[in-house]
Each structure stands twice: as C-alpha cells, then as structure tokens.
Amino acid sequence: MFRSFASFNFRVWFIGALVSNIGSWMQSTAQSWVVLTQLTDNDAGAMGVTMALQFGPPLLFVGVSGWVTDRFDRRRILMITQCLLLLLSLTIGILLLLDVMTLPLMYCLAFVMGMVVAFDNPARQAFVSDLVRRENASNAVALNAASFNGARMIGPAVAGLLIVAVGTGWVFLINVLTFAGMLVALFAIRSGELIPRKKADASARLADGFRYVARRPDLIVIFAMVFLLGALGMNFPIFASTMAIEFGQEADGFGLLSSILAVGSLVGALLAARRARARLRVAIIATGAFGIVSIVSALMPVYWLYAVCLVLVGFTIVTTLTTANGYVQTTTDAGLRGRVLALYVAILMGGTPLGAPLVGWVAAEFGPRTAIMLGAVGGLAACAIGLTWVIASGRLHRRHGEGFALTLDETRPIAVITRPQPTVVPEEFSDKGAETSAIRLVDDDDDFDEPRARRA
C-alpha cells in the first residue's frame, strides 16, 4: 500500500501536499459559507455560480495548460502557481476582515483563482509521475489522493470551528501559512532523483493531446464518466451546506459533514493504493455504487444518518476518481501525459460550470434532497456509459464451458514482440521507446566488442 514512500522525493511531496491541502480545504469551506450566509441569504444558486467561475478556467485553458505542463519544468510551474494562490488567499482574507467583500468581488476573485488552478492542477497531477518509477505510478497517484482526502478530514472541521470562533477572514489568512508546506517540499525535492521524462519540444502542438485521446476509446469513456460526475455528482459544497441548514446546523455542522465525507474518501484512496494497477472496470462499478448511495443519503431523515451515508458517498467517488486518474497516467504516452491530464482535469472540473448552477438552482427551488437525487442520476448515467462500452467492445463474454460465468478482457491489450526487430536508436529517453525497442543479447559465441557494448 505504501511502496511509493521508498522514494525520498515522494515522501517530501506527500508531507508538503498534506499540509497545503489542509489549508485548501479550510479555505474552500470558508468560501462556501461566506457566499451562502454572509454575502447572500442562503442562496445556493450564488454558490453554484461561484463554483462555476472557479472551476471554469481549466476548461477554457485546457490546451495551453497541458502544453505548458509538457513543455516546461513542472516543479517551477508549481512554485509559480502556489505563490499566486497564496497572494489570492491573502487578498480575500484581508477584504473579509475589513468587511468590504461583496458578491461580485468574490465572483471575480474566484475566477482569477480558477485561472491559476488551470495551470496548477495538470502540473501537479503529472509531477506525481516524475517522483516514482513507472511501476509505482498508480500507487503514487492513489497515495496522493489519500493525502488530499486525509486533509479533507481535518480542514473542513477545523474551518467550521474557526468560523464560529474568530470568523471567516482568519481562515483565509491561516491558509496562507499552509502554502509554506508545499513550497518547502518543492525546494527540498532532489532534482537528480526525478524520473527522466521526454519533454515536448518547441514543435509540439496543442492539438496533439486531443488527437491522442480521439484514438483511445477507453479514454473517451473515462472522460465521459468523470464529466457527468463533475457536473452533477460532485457538488458537495452545495449538498452539504444546504443539508446542514435543513437539519438546523451552523458552520461547525457543515464542516463536520465535509470531514465525515473525507473518511470514506481516505479509505477509498488507500484501497486503491493496494491494487497493482488501475482498472477501468473498478471505476465503472464505483460510479454505479455512487449513484445508489447518493439516493439513500437523500432519503435520510436526521443529520447523523445522513452523515453516515456520506462515508459511503466519499468512498465510491474517490474510488472512481483515483482509479480513473491512475489509469490515465499509466496508459498514456509520456510525451503527451501533461496535455492528456490537462484535458482530463478540464473535463472533470469543467463540468462544474455547467452543473453547479443547475444543481444550486434545484436546491434553492426544490430543496437539497432533490439536488442530491440529480447528482445520483449523473452517477448512474456514468455507470451506464461504461457498461455499454464494455459490452459493445466485446471484452465481456461468457467463459467457455462454465455456464453463465463471465470474464472481462484487459482494457489495454499489450502487444508482444515475437521476433527481433531492426534496432532503432531513440533521440532521447521516452517510456514508449524504452518499452518497445528490441534489445539484442550477446551470445557466448559472438565476438564481444567491449567499446560497442559499453555504448549500448
């Protein structure tokens, strides 16, 4: 489960990300509560607009952000984005403490924050693969998700208590301090121990990532599934805050719901880390389970029963996303990984500008339970897309001579070289070239050319 911790760089990254993520969850909780209770009169629609503005830029800048991730040093990109996010958190905190924050101003700052995150997210996702060997990439992705959701257990609960005790402005200022965790980790990482990767050259095109995905029907299916989850199912700030108000809770009750959701999320991430590799079938099953448990949660009559259901909701959604992320990273050509991940993040987060205002309006007009049901429909629809593709692709079939027993072939068949191929010398290192280039073995009877062998 924890094999990626053998890497010094990953250990440093994990600790720094955990500290930074705690602060990010604190800020996210405070921002939702400010919009819902201070800047509006419990208007879930305004919260949906805020989320749409914050998560929309990754979709707008998907081509540019992915190209930047593949073209330039990812650690330097993260240093720049983290410093910019620090300044934005400081600005929002000061405006709240001075009592001059308005809803239009919050909209503007949320959009600017989204523009920075559009470059931060793909660089962060792809950088995890630079920290560990290829065979541990899926495990590293899952442990990175565990860090994210472990912070989610702590951050919202602490934010809820701080909002009640000292106010929302101080939560943003405390988050400024947590950025030090990520920045220190980025400085401490040993450059010489990073995994070599093929960087995109100046001739690399923004559209290459789109063309690559268009030739991969399995990736298209994953992207369709995560789009539905991002648009309808993952509006947890709207669900949790409006349900907390319906149950008569304050900010601390809202923060506690977010932390309880993270309990299941953390378990899902750790179990994903135990698997040898990410499988698409796991993501498909988890999306269906998410739809079912979401329906059950919407029917809960009291606060604590709803909270218990959130554990299962968190487990299923993180199992889906961690598996999908790991699958995309480990099956994508290294030279295009940044652009493909940028597209993945844009589709996941880009669904929010479309779905969040709709979900917020449904919550305001028909109640939060109806909004949760709408999210459940998104999960069930995603599951249906995955199952339809598996059946249509012919990978699901009956086992010969075993009645109704079914088997599912591997999603990505591996081509095996059966005879020696002409030697090809790659211009520079790439995972694809290393995996497919034939290596000639020297027999005992062959003449041994030591200089030539040393060059090989």
| Strand adjacency order, main sheet | 1-2
Cα Rg: 23 Å
Helical segment tally? Answer: 18
Distance between the termini: 36 Å
| Gross geometry | globular
Question: Would you identify the regions where 5 or more consecutive residues have pLDDT less than 50?
Answer: 412-421, 423-430, 442-448
- Following the backbone from N to C, one meets helices and strands in this order, namely HHHHHHHHHHHHHHHHEEHH
Q: How helix-rich are the residues, as a percent range?
A: over 70%
What's the pLDDT, averaged over the residues? 80
Strand content: under 5%
* Subunit organisation of the chains: single chain
Going by helix content, strand content and strand pairing, the class is: mainly alpha
Largest sheet: 2 strands, antiparallel
Number of strands: 2
